[in-house]
Design goal:
- Two copies of one chain form a homodimer.
- Chain A has about 210 residues and is α+β, with helices and mostly antiparallel strands.
- Chain A folds into two domains: about 5-85, Glutaredoxin (3-Layer(aba) Sandwich), CATH 3.40.30.10; about 90-200, Glutathione S-transferase Yfyf (Class Pi), Chain A, domain 2 (Up-down Bundle), CATH 1.20.1050.10.
- In chain A, about 60% of the residues lie in helices and about 10% in strands.
- Chain A has a four-stranded mixed sheet with strand order 2-1-3-4, with helices on one face.
- In chain A, a hairpin with a 2-residue loop joins strand 3 (about 55-60) and strand 4.
- The first copy, chain A, is globular, with a radius of gyration of 17 Å.
- The relative contact order of chain A is 0.14.
- Chains A, B: One of its GO terms (molecular function) is glutathione transferase activity.
- Chains A, B: Its EC number is 2.5.1.18.
Chain lengths: ~210, ~210
Amino acid sequence: MAMKLHGHPLSPATHRVMACLEEKGVEYEFVHIHLSTAHHKESFLSLNPFGQVPALEDGDLKLFESRAITQHLAHTYADNGTPLVPQDPKERAIVYVWMEVESQRFDATAAKLSYELVTKPMLGMTTNDAVVEEHQEKLGKVLDIYESRLAKSKYLGGEVFSLADLHHLPIVSHLFGTKTKALFDARTHVSGWGAGILARPAWQKVVEKMKH
Amino acid sequence: MAMKLHGHPLSPATHRVMACLEEKGVEYEFVHIHLSTAHHKESFLSLNPFGQVPALEDGDLKLFESRAITQHLAHTYADNGTPLVPQDPKERAIVYVWMEVESQRFDATAAKLSYELVTKPMLGMTTNDAVVEEHQEKLGKVLDIYESRLAKSKYLGGEVFSLADLHHLPIVSHLFGTKTKALFDARTHVSGWGAGILARPAWQKVVEKMKH
């Protein structure tokens, strides 16, 4: 039985899991969850008590939280497609560090910019310029550290692409369509890294699927 | 050579790593980092470019981000002390889900309460009551879901204590000394879980060490 990914075509967290499934070349069924529909929401709570997409059904295993799902996929399908977590314990430890940096440092500020500059306009809401300014300043400081890291290392987690890079994809993709892209452009290595991960065939497949 | 934990006695993230080291029964040297001292800060940046404690030196491996360090310790010292991550892939996947819940749902709001109600008074700053009220409401909703989870499962990640519980310790410990404890007290299973993890001998050792 194919895995079922319960998600929404506009949800960055859903895209994060899709990117992982495509990198692994694992087949899956996409279940479109309409969280605005009470009936959908009620039944979805059995998959994720927090009521947010995505959730994954892999046989009798029910998982939520996009970054937990990608880790499960990376371990379970270690031999399929792109290896996303190194086998070597020391290399893996470094990948974990940069996965945490994405979650604690990057996402904490970049997701707010994505919300203000992409989600709000899409929903006909007004962007709060003060919030944008505050978070652009914070993101700039994070990207300064990324620039130093990427000057020494091809990817954030080491010399090969890993979950530490993959987890950034949905928000980097959003921000590359906004004025915040200037923060990336201003930093040579960050800019090249961003363009490079967005150009990956697996991510392009996600973008293509989300058009339909 | 013993591992070196670079931290600060008042840092919750430092306590998170100490709890893990104590559960594993691994010897380590504590290096007190004074981040207010320019000299310390400068040299500390080579361990963590974000300039925040803790950081761990394990031989030639240099790690930062408390939750990445605990994962490294749990994997590297899998056979020492308390097993903090299950070997079984399905059980492990569920532990990862609740580790992400701690990071994305619990900490996002509980750490703000800890800052307002513990850190600020300690530094002679004024608590912002509006922020406290906002985050108490948010935390209450998270704890409602914890209550359902803990009614069915002894610990968050399953029937045994794991990193999913351990990562909560420093902030739960702080909040149990504030009025926010009422949110825990109002929920039977959450209250028992909180008291249970705080009573663990490993955590008691951390509390004891931090008194000196």
